[in-house]
Design a protein that fits this description.
Layout (H helix, E strand, L loop, with lengths): L1 H18 L13 E7 L2 E7 L4 H13 L13 H5 L4 H11 L7 E8 L3 H10 L6 E4 L5 E6 L6 H16 L3 E5 L9 H18 L5 E3 L4 H6 L4 H11 L4 H5 L2 H12 L4 H8 L3 H15 L6 H18 L1
Parallel strand pairs: 6-7
Antiparallel strand pairs: 1-2, 3-5, 3-6, 4-5
Length: 315
Amino acid sequence: MEERSDGLEKILADIGEQTGVHAYLTPQGEEEKAFSVPWDGGTVTIYLTGSGAEREAKLISYLLANSAPAAAHSGKVKLNSVLLGEGGRVRALRYLAEHGQKDGPCYAVEVLPDRRGEDALEHIERCLEGADAAVFTEGNAIGVVKFAGDGQSPYEFGLFLNQSLYEEAGIHGRVGVGCEVPTFAEISLSYAQAVSALRMSDMLGDGGEVHSYREYLLVGVLSGLSRESIRASLREFRIGGTEEVFGDEELCLTAERFLENDLNLSETSRALFIHRNTLSYRLDKIERLTGLDIRKFSDAVTFRVITVLLELVKE
């Protein structure tokens, strides 16, 4: 009961921040009026002050009664609607209260299994613990909520889920990882980042199965530019040969894998199944065409920026 009251107090506090109407579960030592409002299939007493207390009590009654979807299963707020940002902070906090869960830092992950979605969800649920949860969001996509505290980074958890899904369930998947947020009320932001990570990895043709939103900070910043600004930026770079490089599938793939492998020649040659000398030849060709030696960090950053800008112009 204490956890449920704590959850309701957080919801009332959030309503206060959003509406300016401040209600309390216990008297605050002023001339307050008590009102019964709906909560969790019953009623609870709240305390309000001021001449407009009756009107404010009706507002709070409405917000509490409608903080969960009308068709919510067994009166419970659905996790998928919380992840998709439907209902905002109030609905997220209500979810915590209805499930008797404590708030805390957390993050979201999106898993896209290539087949057997139900089996994938069941396996992922077995990998979770405590307040962690998973649910179908849209189509075959699975949204996962992971509360922090086990010493594992969000990206490491994404790698673990993907590897476990394949090795133990025989299901291939792609995983997008959002950033950690301080409270569950912001979990929809983290989930949106996880979804964006997979979308941006597709846009840029990045290899691999696990992608963190942190990888695409540059893309996120540049995507806020208008197309005309992007074209102007490309003109300012004054780098020739980009059409030859980006029109050559072999050179594009070579550059992408080289950047993904942290400019490591040996790792890249293994990833591409080519001899190290062949890789060096291709990198030399990119340098001849563009003037950029992407074996150097500064030129590699410039090449990456140009890649992002060209993809954004094509969108």
